[in-house]
Write a structure and sequence with these properties.
By secondary structure, the protein is α+β, with helices and mostly antiparallel strands. 30% of the residues lie in helices and 28% in strands. It folds into two domains: 4-118, Aminotransferase class 4, branched-chain amino acid transferase, N-terminal domain (D-amino Acid Aminotransferase, Chain A, domain 1); 126-282, Alpha-Beta Barrel (D-amino Acid Aminotransferase, Chain A, domain 2). Strand 3 and strand 4 form a beta hairpin. The chain is globular. Bound molecules: N-(5'-phosphopyridoxyl)-D-alanine (PDD). It catalyses: L-valine + 2-oxoglutarate = 3-methyl-2-oxobutanoate + L-glutamate; L-leucine + 2-oxoglutarate = 4-methyl-2-oxopentanoate + L-glutamate; L-isoleucine + 2-oxoglutarate = (S)-3-methyl-2-oxopentanoate + L-glutamate. It comes from Rhizobium leguminosarum.
């Protein structure tokens, strides 16, 4: 089935959606994005994604072409038009099209695109085994709090991790884990405390992360927001990642060493269950 995608107010078959070679998203990675999970044809965590989108555009001085309510309607419409039951919606806003110049153009018209990707997200076979990660240096830019499409280094890191036989990379800077290539990194210590890095420009402010901390607090799982070292991660009882389509996904191996007993940890699996239950109940 060919997808129907959204481009600047138009609904088009995917092959007909074309963006200029002068688009600053293409020339300068001058664009931001959001990924929203979809289950049962409903949007997960939409308010969080909408708020972060507003923040990312504001940080870059990109004018958001639609109001939050209108954007929500576009998300719902793209689900309807593609009969999407499970998967994700990708949204991107670039500053727009202008002759190539490092200075931002005056009053450009932003390019707004959305497309869907259908895939099973609830029944992830990796939940049963956990994923393996390789520790690699974090060589991204310093404003990781803005969700830009500047994703070449995370992509290179993912390839390097895979070349080492791992599923993903955990990035390390100044002796501390920052995050995964496209997810937030968390550990659970031997004494049962969830540890996740505090918010700063060093990491993306994960929407799933915020919800998981909230759920952990209510479930009586103590948590601490602080940076942790690669050694702490290797010696943790449990480890996991969070993101819009992975939800809470166990990490069972770090640099070839098993985490805990080398299988998904009970607290991680409990958090995944609680997270999915709550977010399905709140889905829009
Ligand atoms: N990535 N950190 C990074 C670097 C990310 O790219 C992501 C998400 C996250 C988790 O954020 P959230 O919980 O809001 O999805 C953390 C998306 C899913 C992607 O690039 O596909």
């Amino acid at each position: 089935m060919t997808r129907i995608v959204y481009l600047n107010g138009n609904w088009l078959p995917e092959a007909d959606a074309k963006v200029s070679i002068f688009d600053r998203g293409f020339l300068f990675a001058d664009a931001i994005y959001e990924v929203t999970g979809v289950v049962g044809g409903k949007l997960l965590e939409y308010p969080g994604h909408s708020a972060r989108l507003q923040r990312s555009t504001a940080e870059l001085g990109i004018a958001c072409p639609l109001t939050p309510d209108a954007l929500l309607e576009v998300h719902r419409e793209i689900v309807r038009r593609n009969e999407l039951r499970e998967g994700l919606i990708y949204l991107q806003i670039s500053r727009g099209t202008a002759d190539r110049d490092f200075a931002f153009p005056e009053n450009p018209t932003p390019t707004l695109t959305l497309f869907t990707q259908a895939k099973p997200v609830l029944d992830n076979p990796k939940v049963a085994t956990g994923i393996s990660v390789a520790l690699l240096p974090d060589q991204r830019w310093a404003r990781r709090d803005i969700k830009t499409v500047q994703l070449l280094y995370p992509s290179m890191a993912k390839m390097e991790a895979m070349a080492k036989g791992a599923d993903d990379a955990w990035l390390v800077e100044d002796g501390f884990v920052t995050e995964a290539s496209s997810a937030t990194a968390h550990i659970i210590t031997e004494d049962g405390k969830l540890v996740t890095r505090g918010l700063s420009n060093a990491i993306l402010h994960g929407i799933t992360r915020a919800s998981v901390l909230d759920i952990a607090g209510k479930a009586g799982i103590e948590f601490e927001e602080r940076a942790f070292t690669p050694d702490e991660a290797k010696n943790a009882a449990e480890a996991f990642i969070t993101s819009a389509t992975n939800f809470v996904l166990p990490v069972t191996e770090i640099d070839g060493r098993p985490v805990g007993e080398g299988k998904p940890g009970p607290r991680t699996l409990r958090l995944r269950k609680l997270y999915i239950e709550q977010k399905l109940a709140e889905a829009l």
